C-alpha cells in the first residue's frame, strides 16, 4: 500500500504523542518543571511585598511610626506574621491550581514539584525581603534590623500546598459515586 499524501507532506521529525491526551510528551515534560520554577520565581515578588507591607520595612499595612524602626521589638511578631500570611496564601493558591489537574496523568510528580517549588520560593522570598531591607531600608545601628525571627514560617508554603492538595483530592474522591458492576445477561 502507499502512504497517504498527508504523511508525505509532513517531513518534520516524528513526535512521540501521549495516547491519553494526544499531546506531545516532550512538551508535557517541560511543563512539569514549571511547577517547580514558577513558585520559586514568585518568591521574588513575595519578598518585595513582605518588605513593603511588614513593620520595619516600608510598613504600608499599619503606617504606625513606632513600628517603622526595624530594631523595635514590637514589630518582630507582626513582621513574621506578614510573611507567614503571604506564604500561606501562596500555598493555598498553588494547591488550587494543582486541583484543576488532578485527573490528568502525572499528578504525583506535579504535586512533588509544586511542594519543592514552594519551599524554594519561601527561601527566595525571605532572602529578597532581607535584601530589599538592606538596599532601601534605613541603616540599622547594631541590633537585628529587618529579619525573620520564626524560621518555621518558611514551611507554610510547602505545607499548605501539600495539605490543601491532599484535602481537595480527598473531597473529590469522596464525592465520586462508586462504579456499578456490569450487569450479567
In words, what does this structure look like?
With 185 residues, the chain is mostly helical. It has one domain. Helix content is 57%, strand content 0%. The chain contains 6 helices and no strands. Helix 3 (34-53) packs parallel to helix 5 (107-136), helix 4 packs antiparallel against helix 5 and helix 5 runs antiparallel to helix 6 (156-174). Residues 5-22 have low confidence and may be disordered.
Strands, helices and their partners?
Blueprint: H1 5-9, H2 25-32, H3 34-53, H4 76-99, H5 107-136, H6 156-174
Main beta sheet strand tally, sense and closure: none
The coarse silhouette is elongated
Task: State Rg.
Answer: 24 Å
SS field, number of helical segments: 6
Tell me what portion of residues adopts beta-strand conformation: under 5%
Overall pLDDT: 82
- Structural classification: mainly alpha
Name the descriptors:
185 residues, mainly alpha, 6 helices
Amino acid at each position: 500500500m502507499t502512504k497517504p499524501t498527508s504523511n508525505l507532506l509532513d517531513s518534520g521529525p516524528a513526535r512521540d504523542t501521549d495516547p491519553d491526551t494526544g499531546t506531545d510528551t516532550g512538551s508535557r515534560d517541560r511543563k512539569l518543571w514549571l511547577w517547580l520554577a514558577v513558585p520559586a520565581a514568585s518568591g521574588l515578588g513575595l519578598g518585595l511585598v513582605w518588605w513593603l507591607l511588614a513593620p520595619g520595612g516600608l510598613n504600608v499595612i499599619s503606617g504606625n511610626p513606632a513600628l517603622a524602626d526595624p530594631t523595635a521589638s514590637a514589630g518582630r511578631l507582626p513582621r513574621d506574621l506578614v510573611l507567614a500570611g503571604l506564604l500561606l496564601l501562596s500555598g493555598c493558591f498553588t494547591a488550587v491550581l494543582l486541583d484543576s489537574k488532578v485527573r490528568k496523568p502525572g499528578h504525583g510528580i506535579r504535586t512533588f514539584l509544586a511542594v519543592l517549588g514552594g519551599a524554594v520560593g519561601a527561601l527566595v522570598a525571605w532572602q529578597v525581603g532581607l535584601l530589599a531591607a538592606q538596599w532601601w531600608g534605613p541603616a540599622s545601628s547594631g541590633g537585628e534590623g529587618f529579619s525573620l525571627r520564626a524560621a518555621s514560617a518558611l514551611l507554610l508554603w510547602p505545607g499548605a500546598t501539600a495539605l490543601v492538595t491532599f484535602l481537595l483530592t480527598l473531597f473529590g474522591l469522596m464525592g465520586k459515586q462508586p462504579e456499578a458492576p456490569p450487569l450479567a445477561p
